[in-house]
Amino acid sequence: MLMRTDPFRDIDRFANRILGATGGTWSRPASIPMDAYRDGEQFVVCFDLPGVSPDAIDLDIERNVLTVRAERRPVAASDKEVEMQVAERPLGVFSRQLFLGDATDTDNIRADYDAGVLTLRIPIAERAKPRKIEIAQAQPERREIDA
Fold first, then answer.
1. How far is CA 106 from CA 39, 63, 70, in A?
2. Which residue ranges form the domains of the chain, and what is each CATH number?
């Protein structure tokens, strides 16, 4: 049997669930922790989703708003009735929205999932990349003289 080390954890979890702070089935979706940085010609965004199956992750983009939704489901048990001894990991739906600027190429976003981390690579649009502008030589105006 597993021992519970904090006798007040269940009370805290119950209070958080009632107040809507955990992302459980009775509250609004909890936020997903993330890191974001620019790496050369792309933005990289990493979301922590430990214990989430790749098929339980949805990525949607609409009008430059990227939505990440994930659901951590209970561990599937055998056919026997299971009595949970300790349940500290939050279950349910988690979500996060990113507002992408016009400088991003939303048609070519790449997503990878490894070791509980969802990594998005969002390229910078060609029109937003720095470029040189060629300066044309002005041609002197020619005026014809009436004779």
1. 16, 9, 20
2. 29-75+89-127 (2.60.40.790)
